[in-house]
Design brief:
The protein is mainly alpha-helical. It contains one helix and three strands; from the N terminus they run H-E-E-E.
Length: 141
């Protein structure tokens, strides 16, 4: 009988050890996940800023070769396919249609409404235009 009760105690001890480990993992996740989530969002914002800079470079090369930036109606497609009125086009200037880190197409407007050569922006993580989370090539005051 004493051997049976030793086995029961060993099983109970193992269960307590497992529960203790589960609690520790839960506490670590409760602390780590919010921090990692914030870093993931910041990393996507930074990646989108880099994408905007890359597309800006492609648009500047387009402007040097064609003589003007694509119009809003031509859009960023002009970096992939030659517009009908673009003499001097030597593209494509990008490999694929420019997107942000959330997989959405970048927005483009020319002439700019913000005193730049063109407006280029992402609607950001919420995918809604005009919010504070938009990633853009101009500064708001």
């Amino acid at each position: 009988m004493s051997s049976f009760s030793r086995q029961q105690r060993r099983k109970a001890f193992t269960f307590i050890e497992i529960m203790f480990v589960v609690v520790i993992i839960g506490v670590l996740l409760a602390v780590a996940v919010p921090r990692l989530t914030g870093q993931a969002k910041e990393a996507k914002i930074r990646a989108t800023e880099l994408s905007i800079k890359s597309v800006t470079t492609a648009l500047q090369k387009y402007e040097l070769e064609v003589g003007d930036f694509p119009s809003t109606s031509e859009g960023l497609e002009a970096l992939l396919k030659e517009p009908s009125n673009a003499s001097g086009w030597k593209g494509p200037y990008v490999d694929d249609f420019p997107t942000d880190a959330w997989g959405n197409k970048l927005n483009y407007r020319q002439p700019s409404e913000h005193g730049r050569d063109f407006d280029l922006w992402s609607n950001g993580p919420d995918k809604q235009e005009g919010n504070d989370d938009d990633v853009k090539n101009w500064k708001t005051k």
